[in-house]
Amino acid sequence: MLLFDKVTKKYDQDITALEDVYFNIDKGEFSFLVGPSGAGKTTLMRLLIREELPTSGDIFFDEINVPKIPRQLLPQYRQKLGIVFQDMKLLQSKNLQENIAFALEILGKETKEIKETTEYLLELVKLQDRRFLFPHQLSGGEQQRGAIARALANNPELLVADEPTGNLDPDNAFDVLTILRNINKAGTTVMVISHDKDIVNEMKTRVIRMEKGKVISDNKGDYDTIKKPKAPTHIKPKKEEKKDTEDVKESKKELEIDERIKDLEPSILKKFVDAKINTLELIFNLTESDLKNLKITKKEQEILEAFVKDYLTKSK
Ligand code: ADP
Question: Hey, whose CA ends up nearest to atom 14 of ligand 1?
Fold first, then answer.
């Protein structure tokens, strides 16, 4: 689902925040990302949400080449992710229920769906009886659970939480952990950045440890267990190469068009098909200059953005 392949990120000539980072995360996994301050954890997250670009290396999410996503399609890509930042606060002027509902309103959901999803999320984070309270009336743990509920509003495929138990007492920390675990059991892939040994050791799950911009350990177990990460065994999640004879057969076959893009505006679809772009993933991987080369007009770009957004909303 997520692959960092030999990713290096330099901020300046002399600041290497990440160096040759390799790891992959499977769908449905629960993992911890640990390491001292300055290890590169935040940088890694910023690359994942495409706030920063790698200096070298590849990042794939669901076979989408993240650094290459055209800027116009970034909002759609980011809808696949749920991020709970350390300093992410709920909106002070709205109560908890309104905070969650607002995240859904931004996504353009209908009133009935907003109501049902808000209800479901409040229940998931066990805050039904706190719904009318404003953030300053909630405890630290409750605010954190509220922020998690909000990050889940777009039904992300991957939830990343940065120090979700930081500043919480053990009881509240374990409540947050239980909620993250339940979210994971319900099918969402979860990655938690944490310093909290007790929390990490409680889970006995995968721990990716970073130090000075490198992954120095990748193991299933405790916070302190060090196990060297496996060397990359494969490079990109590309389709297997076909033998020559199959290639010939393939070229004779008419290009099969992905069901998911069949309803795309015919003029745009024709431009894509002529360029052998026949799947949604290929469309996601187009760069801005690709779109230009394909002579996709500004109007068509708007239609395309709306189409992708609509697809992502419906597919949930
Ligand atoms: P962590 O989240 O593990 O504390 P960071 O990713 O924040 O680590 O930082 C990794 C390294 O990159 C540190 O040396 C930090 O000073 C540097 N760094 C982070 N962000 C920037 C930036 N915007 N400009 C320059 N250096 C940065």
Answer: 38
